[in-house]
Amino acid sequence: xxxxxxxxxxxxxxxxxxxxxxxxxxxxxxxxxxxxxxxxxxxxxxxxxxxxxxxxxxxxxxxxxxxxxxxxxxxxxxxxxxxxxxxxxxxxxxxxxxxxxxxxxxxxxxxxxxxxxxxxxxxxxxxxxxxxxxxxxxxxxxxxxxxxxxxxxxxxxxxxxxxxxxxxxxxxxxxxxxxxxxxxxxxxxxxxxxxxxxxxxxxxxxxxxxxxxxxxxxxxxxxxxxxxxxxxxxxxxxxxxxxxxxxxxxxxxxxxxxxxxxxxxxxxxxxxxxxxxxxxxxxxxxxxxxxxxxxxxxxxxxxxxxxxxxxxxxxxxxxxxxxxxxxxxxxxxxxxxxxxxxxxxxxxxxxxxxxxxxxxxxxxxxxxxxxxxxxxxxxxxxxxxxxxxxxxxxxxxxxxxxxxxxxxxxxxxxxxxxxxxxxxxxxxxxxxxxxxxxxxxxxxxxxxxxxxxxx
Length: 455
What we know:
Strands 3-7-8-9 form a 4-stranded mixed sheet. By secondary structure, it is α+β, with helices and mostly antiparallel strands. Helices cover 46% and strands 13% of the residues. The chain has 15 helices and 12 strands.
């Protein structure tokens, strides 16, 4: 209801707006966020506002309201907040993450930051803006090495000799444009000097008695001189900000380095800060989106010059159920299990066909296959997952089979075999040695636990 006080949880944008508001320092300001009519959208009257500009505000009345801090303290806080802001690309920072400051979340559009574990090893990229603002879960997160490997390979390919020659030819075209621009500025300066010299000659030619004419010509001369000075300053700034083309010696050095660029990229003498600098010279930003909760990641690279490229990478996930190919993987493993293959043989077939586990290793093992099938088909008996190909005599059991038959722990059966209560023989087969226990029907009946009698 209007006029009632409603308490809400604070967030970072609200606190920032509070700290940068001049009312916090007791000042009334009008026109802090001027509106640009050219940027307004139809139906949205509050659109088109520019960033707060305290220096160009229409009205500033100090000590007009109760102040929490002094005006000098407010200006210091505002300056500190502006210096901490990272609206542009973040600078090169220490750390193993290659794309720190360049990565943008493909889901929410906010900047992703790098997080480090294990004393600087194992960096991850995560979108933690909503967590830092509202303590909500992470938007998305992925391991840094797969993405850094892709960007490093793309950066090396981008500066290979063929691509490098194109870039150098573009640099030559930029130099031609720079020469044309310099000629254009020279022509403008010549015209401005001519106008200033003409105003001076007119001023010198007038009679001193004509004071009104003298004052008019003097103002015209001063206007021409100020225009010439302003034009010279603009020319110097424009030429200084425009990138200069490399010299012939620099081009020769670049061509020599590019022939062995992959080895140079991986060399121990190349620091991570050097790699980050190279990536920032090539890329404007990188958009990353994890597809669902799977291992598939969509990467969109925005290169300097307006070129956009899309790529796919595979990130490590915590369990096999999060794989996008989980259903097909289980179906293939079950098909091989039905064909009579054991865990080790199924693992060899899966590795040969190109299947890969979730993380921590690059190939399947027999135990991983057995765990996969046990998780996917919990109702299946364990004996189907371990099928040692051995010949048995009548009344012979494996220790796990006999333990299940007696409804006893396997350790109990092991102790009976070790103490000689049960006869057994060693066998070889499957992934590890095992034993077969001789137990006929009478022995099994004698070993079965007897029910307790109730009084």
